[in-house]
Amino acid sequence: MKLFKFLILFLFFSISAQETPIISPTYAFPKIKSSITMPVKIPLSEISSMVNSSVKDLIYEDNSFEDNNNDQFKVKVWKTKPIRIVGGTHDNLLIAVSLKIYAEKGIGTLGVYTYQNTTFETTMFFNTQLTANNNWIISTKTTANGFKWVTKPVLDYGRIKVPITSLVENSLKEQQAKFCTTIDEQMKTQLNFQQLAITAWNLFVEPFNVSEDFKTWLKITPLNVNLTPLKFFGNEIQTNIGLDIYSETFTGLKPQTSPVVGAIGNFNFVPQLQNAFTLNTTSNIPYESATEIAKQTFLNKKYNFKDGNYSVTITGIKVYGEENRLMIEAETSGTINGTSYISGIPVYDEVKHKIVLSDIKFKLKTSNFFQKTLTILFKNKIVKMIAEDYGIPTADLELSSKSSIEEAFNKDYYKGLKISGKVFKLKPHQILLTPNGITAVILTQATLQIKLQGI
Predict the structure, then answer these.
(1) In the chain, which stretches have pLDDT less than 50?
(2) Which of 96, 106, 162, 293 supports an S-S bond with 155, CB 3.0-4.6 Å?
(3) pLDDT recorded at residue 193
(4) What UniProt keywords apply to this chain's record, in alphabetical order (predicted)?
């Protein structure tokens, strides 16, 4: 059975600070509830192809002169051109069917007849009203909208020309009524949106490998679907689909596959959705990576304070999390020998494109009483230093991630489905601390369009 395949596959990314993350594959990153909104365009040429494939070229045939109360009339009706469908102005489709008709009529009495035949053409017109039900089924009601003669049916017996318009019209009206039923039956069979939605829903059962280098997986779990009213244009039907989802990011081993669903709940009608989607996903920076950045910035460097009268050298440094604060543990030698604990709340600095510390606090652990008296002087120096110099850069990763997302958004992932999209905003907007690392919640906004072909 041919189906409209109109939902899309969504690939994303993860920010990581090194090539070999040490995150446990079983660690549960926070589930982020979000939504994706997509404009959908259904070409009427594809619906025409569907209807044409279901309607044979020979539409009707009456090979008997004796039936219909011995009407001495035979007729055959062929489709001469593909059935044409255009959008109407009242949530409807206008259908035109071009026909060639062969008719043969006998004239006579007492069983003696003279037969003559003719061939002529006409075009039937239909009006199909479509209603999208929230159980994924499109209801259609097709009514006859008359027909137009291209050449009128006339039998030529030489001097006698017998018009058979009334005979043919009766047959055509009868067949036109039957054809209305055929169109509705085919629409009902082919536009089974529930099965279509199940197929699309199950596209997400497999997590997506969005970064082989960082062994990053994105898992999207659909929750429910929203749909705007169908809009009809001359060459296509448009609507907007909104998915409420959970997105999760994993690093390491591939996460567990979701179960395949055999049924799906009804969708929700909504009057309008924006032609954009917003997606939150999570990305992880291991504490080992944050420690490496701190070492590159501070390790074995000498710092002077109080007009150069005192100095310290950082001989060891480590970064880890403690509740909601990022801890920097620094071993120092020189004027102060001991361990300094600098903590702060990690936030994203949009100007620096770095994860930096705010609300910085300081604590010194040393057994030297004299050194404790210098703490206030050292504290001001190191707090300022950390605030200005320490940060986990994200600019390059943001640019590369934007590029990889747009590459993923402009591919053919499924036969008959064309996806095109562009990211216009991407930034970390929330920083969380986990037992294993720093988790950045990424806000991404983009436009995404899908096109159906060859359904």
Answers:
(1) 1-28, 455
(2) 162
(3) 66
(4) Signal
pLDDT recorded at residue 288: 92
**Residue 434 CB coordination number (10 Å):** 17
- 18: in domain: no
Q: Which domain holds residue 123?
A: 44-191
Q: Alpha carbon 432 to chain centroid distance?
A: 28
Cβ-contact 366, 340 below 8 angstroms? no
Residue 8: predicted pLDDT? 27
pLDDT tens by residue, 436-449: 888 887 888 887 77
Query: What gap in Å lies between CA 155 and CA 163, rounded to an integer?
Result: 6
Residue type, 173: K
* Structural domain contains residue 330: no
Residue 250's H or E segment, with its range, is strand 236-251
The rounded distance, in Å, linking the Cα atoms of 166 and 184 is 27
* Alpha-carbon gap, residue 340 to 386, rounded angstroms: 12
Residue 120 located in a structural domain = yes
Which secondary structure element, helix H or strand E, spans residue 384, and what is its range? helix 375-389
Sign of CA dihedral 79, 82, 87, 92: positive
Classify 106 as helix, strand or coil: strand
In a domain, 86, yes or no: yes
* Strands, E assignment, 110-235: 112-132, 138-149, 154-157, 160-163, 208-211, 216-227, 231-232
Would you call 198 exposed, middle or buried from its count of C-beta atoms within 10 A (0-12, 13-18, 19+)?
Answer: middle
What element of type H or E holds 286? strand 277-286
Query: What per-residue confidence (pLDDT) applies to 380?
Result: 79
The pLDDT value given to residue 25: 38
Which two three-digit tokens encode residue 441?
């919640």
Collapsed DSSP state (helix, strand, coil) of residue 64: coil
* Number of domains within the chain: 1
From start to end of 16-111, where are the E strands?
32-43, 58-62, 73-79, 84-87, 92-109
Measured between alpha carbons, how far is 327 from 345 in angstroms, rounded to an integer? 9
- Do 72 and 109 contact (CB within 8 A), yes or no? no
Cβ atoms of residues 316 and 328 within 8 Å: no
Q: What is the pLDDT of residue 442?
A: 80
Task: Write out pLDDT tens, residues 116-147.
Answer: 788 889 999 999 998 888 888 788 899 999 88
Smallest Cα–Cα separation from 36: which of 181, 225, 171? 225
